[in-house]
User: Which sequence fits this backbone?
């Protein structure tokens, strides 16, 4: 059974995470040489990411604010030498405060919030910093096993300068009792690596009377690297 290359990363096949049983490769992976176009471009259209796109509580055209516990999520994108990675497109998507995605696949019996679309993006600055304002997502049920619930999480995608530089991961919240029951979280092989997927409460980020702050640094490679997900052939599976 093929496994991912980095020991920090979850394996392609993790039996308790049911989707991996069918989608994981059963043959040795074949390296596909990159051509110049894949290495150099076209890359994400970062010029279209403006300052308002990092506030998920205030969607364009919405009548009011998103309902839920308002939070600020910030951090730095670093390489394995600790150097900041500037100008990287950081995209997030998440369920609303009730645990419901605005997506046709999601039929969870929980209310949609007309003021919450559930996605946003921004670019890292020269020091590698990103920041989002959003609401804390709710846990939601999924069909992986009996009485399965995903812990609260925010999906992250990072896009560098070319198509082949995309990386995807999830940020979790501290103290969630669902962590130990979640096969996606537990597919990450070590305690240290799982801990790096948990955003840390940051009182210096918390704004008085306004929002709680969390810090989630993302390290792109190396032994202290953030665990990333293997590529998924289909984007229709709810996770
Ligand atoms: Fe999710």
Assistant:
């Amino acid at each position: 059974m093929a496994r991912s290359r980095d020991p920090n990363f979850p394996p392609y096949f993790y039996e308790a995470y049911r989707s991996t049983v069918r989608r994981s490769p059963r043959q040795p992976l074949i390296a596909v040489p990159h051509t110049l176009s894949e290495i150099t471009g076209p890359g994400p259209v970062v010029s279209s990411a403006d300052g308002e796109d990092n506030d998920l509580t205030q969607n364009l055209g919405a009548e009011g604010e998103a309902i839920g516990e308002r939070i600020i999520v910030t951090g730095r994108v670093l390489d394995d030498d600790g150097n900041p990675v500037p100008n990287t497109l950081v995209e997030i998507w998440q369920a609303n405060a009730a645990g419901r995605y605005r997506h046709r696949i999601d039929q969870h019996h929980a209310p949609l919030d007309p003021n919450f679309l559930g996605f946003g993006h921004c670019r890292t600055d020269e020091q590698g910093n990103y920041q989002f304002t959003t609401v804390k997502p709710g846990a939601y049920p999924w069909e992986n096993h009996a009485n399965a619930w995903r812990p609260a999480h925010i999906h992250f995608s990072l896009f560098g300068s070319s198509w082949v530089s995309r990386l995807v991961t999830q940020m979790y919240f501290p103290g969630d009792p669902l962590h130990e029951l979640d096969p996606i979280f537990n597919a990450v092989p070590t305690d240290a690596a799982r801990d790096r997927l948990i955003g840390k409460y940051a009182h210096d980020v918390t704004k008085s009377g306004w929002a709680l702050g969390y810090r989630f640094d993302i390290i792109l490679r190396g032994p202290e690297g953030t665990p990333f997900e293997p590529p998924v052939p289909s984007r229709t599976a709810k996770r």
Summary: Helices lie at 19-23, 36-40, 183-186, 191-195. The mean pLDDT is 88. Residues 150, 153, 155, 239 surround fe (ii) ion (CB under 6 Å).
